[in-house]
Inverse folding.
């Protein structure tokens, strides 16, 4: 796992021309260890924030309507899931669904965080029990017909009553952990359309699935299948997740003896993350 994390450190170091210098930490005198440890911690946080901001700006996510704070949460979970060995080593796809936005807006984003590229921005449905144009209620309960917030891992493709569909595993206990039992999947739905918006002022609603338009369903499923991260955000103050813990993430990524490793990691390219075994 340590070697795997260093690939991310290398990417963090080369993403911007204004990178933080770690030279002073590596050459510090013995009597400055405490000060340098604190400096490293602050610098690590700044470096991680810089990485996220770089992906956000390069992929033009602001222009597409994705809020930076939501992307930061999604990316924090992505890294925590990677550290927990829940993802393949070459995984770079992050899908964000922001249900704090109305359904008539495009509120699903599929991002390649290594290529720093927005692959797709499209409409996505919420559960009919969650609200009309706006989703205001969320549940993990069967038969609620409500959407469930939190982090998911995509799994395999199957053919069901909605045709070609993608299974999801909810990673947040109590919030979306019943996804499998509830058959919460990504599938095509004809009610996710601009025509519905013109007629009803919103797209149609599902039984809790993040359903997408038939025109893009194959692209969505093919792009995010096979253990990638999907994060569903919404206005619910009760939602919490261990995968949003940024403090533990920084402690894991940036250990006290990592300054030299980080300096050496500066030669690692973005491609290394995708190609390393």
């Amino acid at each position: 796992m340590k070697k795997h994390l260093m690939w991310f450190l290398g990417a963090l170091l080369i993403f911007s021309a204004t990178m933080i210098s770690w030279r002073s930490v590596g050459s510090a005198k013995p009597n400055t260890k405490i000060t340098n440890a604190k400096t490293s911690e602050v610098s690590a946080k700044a470096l991680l924030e810089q990485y996220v901001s770089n992906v956000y700006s390069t992929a033009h996510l602001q222009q597409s309507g994705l809020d930076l704070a939501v992307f930061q949460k999604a990316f924090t979970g992505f890294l925590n899931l990677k550290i927990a060995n829940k993802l393949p080593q070459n995984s770079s796809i992050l899908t964000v669904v922001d249900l704090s936005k109305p359904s008539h807006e495009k509120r699903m984003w599929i991002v390649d965080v290594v290529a720093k590229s927005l692959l797709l921005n499209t409409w996505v449905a919420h559960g009919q029990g969650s609200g009309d144009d706006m989703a205001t209620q969320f549940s993990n309960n069967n038969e609620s017909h409500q959407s469930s917030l939190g982090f998911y891992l995509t799994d395999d493709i199957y053919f069901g009553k909605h045709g070609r569909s993608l299974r999801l595993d909810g990673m947040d206990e109590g919030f979306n952990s019943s996804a499998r039992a509830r058959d919460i999947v990504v599938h095509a739905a004809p009610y996710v359309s601009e025509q519905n918006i013109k007629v009803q002022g919103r797209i149609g609603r599902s039984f809790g699935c993040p359903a997408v338009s038939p025109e893009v369903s194959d692209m969505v499923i093919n792009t995010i299948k096979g253990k990638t991260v999907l994060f569903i955000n919404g206005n619910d103050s009760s939602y919490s997740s261990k995968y949003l813990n940024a403090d533990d993430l920084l402690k894991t990524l940036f250990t006290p003896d990592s300054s030299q490793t980080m300096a050496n990691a500066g030669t690692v390219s973005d491609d290394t993350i995708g190609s390393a075994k």
Observations:
- Residues 227 and 239 are 23 Å apart (CA to CA).
